[in-house]
Amino acid sequence: MSQYELIPRDSGASRPPRRSPRGRSPFVRGLFIGGLSFVILSMFAAGMLLIGYAIVASSLPASSRLTEQTSKFQTTRILDRNGNLLNETFDPDNPEAGRRTIVTLGEITPALTQATIATEDANFYRHQGVDPVALTRALYYAVREGDVVSGASTISQQLVKMVMLTPEYTLTRKVKEAILSAEITRRYSKDEILEIYLNEIYYGNLAYGAAAAAETYFGKAAHDLSLAEAALLAGLPQLPAYYDPYTQPERAKKRQGVVLGLMVEHGDITPEEADAAWLEPLAFVPVEFNLDAPHFTLLVRQQLEEILGKEALYSNALQVTTSLDPDLQAAAERIVAEQVALLADRHVSNGALVAMEPATGQVLAFVGSADFNNVEIDGQVNMALAPRQPGSSIKPFVYLAAFEQSDKPPAQRWTPGTLVADIEEEFPDGANPPYVPTNYDGSEHGMVSVRTGLANSYNIPAVRALEAVGVQPFVARMADFGVTTLTRPDYGLSLSLGAGEIPLLELTGAFGVLANGGVRVPPVTILEIKNHSGDILCAQASDRPCQPKAGEQVVAPADAFLITDILSDNEARSPAFGPNSVLRLDRPAAVKTGTTNDIRDNLTVGYTPQLVTGVWVGNADNSPMVNVSGVSGAGPIWHEFMTAALANQPLLAFEPPAGVTRFEVCADTGTAPSDVCPEKRERFFAQDRPPLPSEQDLWQRVRLDRTTGQYATEFTPPGDVEERVFKVYPDAYRTWAEEHGIPQPPPGYQRPTAQPSRQPNQPGDEAVQAVIREPVDGQAVSGVVTVWGSARIPDFAVYELQYGISHDPGAFSPPIAGPYNVPVTDGILGQWDVRNLDDGPHTLRLLVWAQSGRAYETRVRVFVDNPAEPTTPPTIAPATPTWTPAPAFTATPLPTLEPTWTPLPSVTPTWTPLPTEPAPEATPTWTPLPSEPPPVTGGQTITGAGMITDTFIVTP
């Protein structure tokens, strides 16, 4: 008998009592009720969905009308600022508006269909018009964000969007799109949908459909396309202008690689086939357009795609008013073409021009090449957007950065009068050989002011300026001017001569900042966009601009004006360019040229208050020109265009802003003129950075003993004293000066000390305290010396203690105490540990700086006498004029600041004791610490940038 035994119904066998329904488990009952509720709710929801589907579907166009509604696009009109038509995005139903040829799917190479599916809809043959996973993701983000922010459109959905729905981006439209996609998938086969799509999609350059695209770009039928060509075309529909292979070849090539990768992933081709297609050269046929200002129009279309999206641009009947001035554009195109033709014998084939209004950033003229339709010069490449080396046209921004060194006291920041050595020198370049820049004319010009160096475009001073600023800080600063292409990490000092690449549009915009008083307004090309009903979607003159318009003060007005003043100084640039060069207009104009060392790029960029214009000439293939400079190449274009453009404009001068004042200076040195300065001029300087005092002028009167040829002393008979005028060069360049016929005084010349504005001990001087009270002159010191005194002056900044070897040291140590930013009155200034110093004469120095840049100095001469070698310190004869001991020194203020806060590592002073002093066993070499004040010595100091920084000792 089995484990389970059947009991007949009618048997009398007893059964277990039946459980009452009331005794059923609550869990089972709840489960039953829940299941029943779920079924009812599901049926209700399904019913509601069906009803909703029916309601929405009833309002949609019939899917059977798909073929009737194809190719009903509307055009977008692009106008100049006066309302003249520049270009249209054409309706493909107009046979004269754009290229379009209807073909069957069999007439299209399988490579293009495969590439299109892999790129646009990898599951095309597996879904029913909508990709559920992608759609769920899109709906989720739409609900969460309150807007459609995620894609997921299949080929069917894209087709519905193109021909059956309006281009609005709403959740309702997304639902309609999904319903219609499902409907057309039910009514049409996949191949029919793909065929309509490939005949409808826009590939750019007026090519609608695969057949027109194949003919437009490669001059062949759609079934003859290679895998490489098909992959490139399949990547265009997403953003046709952005990936345009004519104007953006690098982007198009990168996009082709993406498509090939997707085809490999989709299993259409092998990696080897993808590699072969990637390496296959593509031969594009030239495209000829009937459109005005072609490069400008294509730029605007690309920007419209980015602002509005491709669909709205090419199917929404928009009217776009641009900033282009038709008269200026016509003049620019004519002048560029004529001048390039004149330079043909110098191997110049191309040119570009950008003209902007500095105050608004509006682009008024834009020429990307000398001839857009000339394939021999690569005319369709937009040279106004192509990054090219700017040559010397970048120098104004190098000097501007030097003016802006706010980490230095005002008197140490560069000014138009700063003297710089235009003398060849080796500059360290890391692991590379030293960098040795030379000037364009092959000459050296000695000590020149910044005004002279920039106006004449001398190379060596610009390199010194960048050395003072630092390469990376300068690169970062250029980004504030809208320059985006200086991205390499390995720039060196040659960047000061234009070794980085900048597009002409960005460079012209950067000069526009100078023209606009230091305010940057980004370039503007679109003034207004209206829809087909005439409603204004955006307007540059409203609170809803089409492009950014808010200006930003990125340069102090005073610094911007000082650069402008130099660039507009025709007299200053005459030594290099002559007094009547093409850089001179009939009105004030600031201008800078630039030519690369290999003469591959030649530029002129200049401005008036109303207009800034940049011009480039060269060759699109980067081949060098022959004997072309800024004056002979781009300069004539700039001059003629600016003359024509400003002919009916009022003559405006560059007005100095607040904080800028005229000072009288020595013309060739930029300092306050000495009494022997041969020629004087009035020049602009910032009020807080005046010219250096006359004591620092190169021109100096020197008293000599005619019998010895040496300096006259108080013992020289009056009849033997003669006065001669010398242009005194710093000691580092003395030999150069003598070799170049510039007489120098005998070695050891000391410049006169600047005269203080008040005599010592007059009322008010008690506020100036720069005193060392202990130790005193002649004292023997040992061990750790506590230095007592005062460091308190008006406008106090910092003080520090230093020491030097001997009683007349050639240089001083890094700070042994300080710098301290708290003043001291009759207290401890610091401690000096002399235990490791050689016995013998030393000098202790106190330096005190004011915020204004004035420096105060006090010295005491002591003898180090450590216990290990006791000696009797000599005494200083009271009659010795130089060594008059005193319990304290009264500091005399200097009229200018000359300590350099950030010494360059190339300056490493070394001390050699005088023969009259006991020679120490070893002569230490002091290396200045970064960001600390360097030693302040009598006479001149040459910084690593070759800039004169004279300082003066305050004597008691």
Summarize the structure in short:
The protein has 956 residues and is α+β, with helices and mostly antiparallel strands. It has 23 helices and 30 strands. The strands form ten sheets. A five-stranded mixed sheet has the order 2-1-5-13-14. A five-stranded antiparallel sheet has the order 7-6-18-17-16, with helices on both faces.
Write up this protein:
The chain is α+β, with helices and mostly antiparallel strands and 956 residues long. The chain folds into 4 domains: 67-315, Biosynthetic peptidoglycan transglycosylase-like (Penicillin binding protein transpeptidase fold); 323-578 and 591-629, DD-peptidase/beta-lactamase superfamily (Beta-lactamase, 3-Layer(aba) Sandwich), CATH 3.40.710.10; 667-739, no CATH class; 762-956, Immunoglobulins (Immunoglobulin-like), CATH 2.60.40.10. Helices cover 28% and strands 17% of the residues. The chain has 23 helices and 30 strands. The strands form 10 sheets. It has a 5-stranded mixed sheet with strand order 2-1-5-13-14. The longest helix has 33 residues, at 26-58. It is elongated, with a radius of gyration of 40 Å. The model is unreliable at 1-23, 147-151, 754-766 and 870-956 (pLDDT under 50).
